[in-house]
Amino acid sequence: MPLLLLGIPAVFLVFFIPSIIARHRSDFSTILLINVVAGWSIIGWVAALYLALRKNSTTLSSTASAGPSTFSVADEIAKLRDLREQGVLTPAEFERQKNNLIS
What we know:
By secondary structure, the chain is mainly alpha-helical. It contains seven helices and no strands. The protein has helices spanning 2-15, 17-21, 28-38, 42-53, 57-65, 73-85, 91-102. Helix 6 (73-85) packs antiparallel against helix 7 (91-102). The longest helix has 14 residues, at 2-15. The radius of gyration is 26 Å and the shape is rod-shaped. The relative contact order is 0.08. The mean pLDDT is 84.
């Protein structure tokens, strides 16, 4: 009987290892759902563990987007000025867009 009392919490601990690992991830709820719904099968448990251990996709995308495409207010105003000079924007539209960028 004492062995059974120790075994049940150990089984639950092993079952929820993917969710425990993923508790600080942004996609924790997805991993927990997969762990609870499909974790009883080996494939579902391994899938939840894989999702918990993979690199966070938001980290990868933020690193990739931090490259040369930085937002510069001066560059945007220069683009607006070029559009105004080409006649695409009226002077009033230019001023409105410029004020939106500055504020």
